[in-house]
Design a protein that fits this description.
The protein is mainly β. The protein has helices at about 1-35, 95-100, 275; strands spanning about 40-45, 50-55, 60-65, 70-80, 85, 110, 115, 120-125, 125-130, 140, 155-160, 160-170, 180-190, 195-205, 210, 215, 215-220, 230-235, 235-240, 255, 265-270, 285-290, 300-305, 310-315, 320-325, 330-335, 340, 345-350, 365, 375-384. It has a single domain (about 50-384), classed as Distorted Sandwich (Beta-galactosidase, Chain A, domain 5), CATH 2.70.98.10. Helices cover about 10% and strands about 40% of the residues. A hairpin with a 5-residue loop joins strand 23 (about 300-305) and strand 24. It is globular. The structure holds alpha-D-galactopyranose. Alpha-D-galactopyranose binds near residues 103, 139 and 347.
């Protein structure tokens, strides 16, 4: 009787032991990951150390991130045969990222991504003048201290969405001409569903515009492959925001129907690009008004490379998507000495509409004290 009882208890303990051990070891591994130290990637010109973090999942996806610009530097993804390639543009050194060759590769753009007309906006009766770094306009947060250029604090973290890296940066009042001190946070997390999720968060102590995005350049055959014009793109948008010749929205919300911007059904990027190459945008460089409810994480775009079979799906909470076809790439040398030719990569930048502070009819990007900015972008990969 006692023997039987002891036997039963032993079996139960044994049955429980494995899962308990698994949870404990899992916890330890996760804690270890959270406590792990990043490596040193290099130093900025002014002597700041730039750290590098690595995220890896069970399906062979590897993401690398650095503290300069909270930047995604590498993203290795399997093709239909299981062979991995690094599908984002970047550089091997900090000097590369600091050079003129860097056109916002992989970085976090802020405080306000995209353009502000004449670098000017008015908030609560006061007019602010920002740097003009894109012809007559302000682009991607400024010149010296835009968020792609500063060194963020970074650490490994556990998240609901898998192991991650959390970057933080406090942008002081007046930096690059913007009002208010903003505490910005970007968390990248990689799960075993091959989703790299990016959460963008911010808080401010005075009203200020905030519009953050990730500026990764993708070529699904691998960074350095000669063109992206053979990739097939779908964008879930019925409307776009037409612009003037300096790429500032006119304010109109126009249907994509009957234009080369209609990607509601899949099209090769090169199929209808010719007329746009002759236009002021020199190719695709347009803001799409995404269908569905902003604030909800929803499908935005799908990029497919028939040769490798790799597919990237972009999901977002944001109202807009800037589709940019690498029109200003000029053959600069990137990682491993590879050449980045014109139209050899695309950006699918989830964001609020360009020049929003000057368009009251667009969804507002003004963040006020007490409010919490939180937007999400997911890059999800598969191969078929
Ligand atoms: C964005 C802009 C482009 C260009 C790139 C960076 O996508 O819309 O016009 O400035 O960034 O080169």
């Amino acid at each position: 009787m006692i023997d039987r009882f002891v036997g039963r208890i032993t079996r139960q303990v044994r049955a429980l032991a494995l899962p308990i051990a698994a949870v404990l070891i899992g916890g330890l591994v996760a804690d270890r990951a959270a406590a792990a130290k990043p490596e040193v990637f290099g130093k900025t010109k002014d002597g700041q150390v730039v750290h590098r973090f690595t995220l890896q999942n069970r399906k062979g996806v590897v993401a690398r991130l650095i503290t300069r610009g909270a930047t995604l530097t590498e993203l290795h993804v399997p093709d239909k045969r299981g062979k991995t390639a690094d599908v984002v543009l970047g550089f091997d050194t900090v000097a590369g990222y600091e050079s003129k060759d860097n056109q916002y590769f992989g970085c976090t753009v802020g405080r306000v991504c995209n353009r502000i007309a004449k670098g000017r906006f008015t908030l609560n009766g006061k007019t602010y003048q920002l740097a003009l770094n894109d012809g007559p306009n302000h682009l991607h947060g400024g010149v010296e201290r835009s968020w792609d250029k500063v060194v963020w604090k970074g650490r490994y973290v556990k998240t609901k969405h898998g192991p991650g890296v959390r970057f933080e940066y406090t942008s002081p009042d007046g930096e690059e001409g913007y009002p208010g001190t903003v505490r910005a946070t970007v968390v990248y997390a990689l799960n075993d569903e091959n989703e790299l999720r990016i959460d963008f968060m911010a808080e401010t102590d005075a009203p200020t515009p905030v519009n953050m995005t990730n500026h990764s350049y993708f070529n699904l055959q691998g960074a350095g492959a000669p063109t992206v014009l053979d990739h097939v793109l779908t964008i879930d948008a019925d409307y776009y925001t037409p612009t003037d010749e300096t790429l500032i929205p006119t304010g109109e919300i126009a249907p994509v129907d009957g234009t080369p911007l209609d990607f509601r059904k899949p099209h090769r990027i090169g199929e209808r690009i010719e007329s746009l190459i002759k236009s002021p945008s020199l190719g695709y460089d347009h803001n799409f008004v995404l269908n569905g409810q902003p604030g909800n994480l929803r499908f935005a775009a799908r990029l497919h490379d028939p040769r490798s079979g790799r597919t990237l799906e972009v999901l977002t909470t944001q109202p807009g998507l800037q589709f940019y076809s690498g029109n200003f790439l000029f053959g600069q040398k990137g990682k491993g000495g590879k050449t980045y030719a014109k139209h050899s990569a695309v950006c699918l930048e989830t964001q609020h509409f360009p020049d929003s502070p000057n368009h009251p009819e667009f969804p507002s990007i003004i963040l006020k004290p007490g409010q919490r900015y939180h937007e999400v972008c997911v890059y999800r990969f598969r191969a078929e």
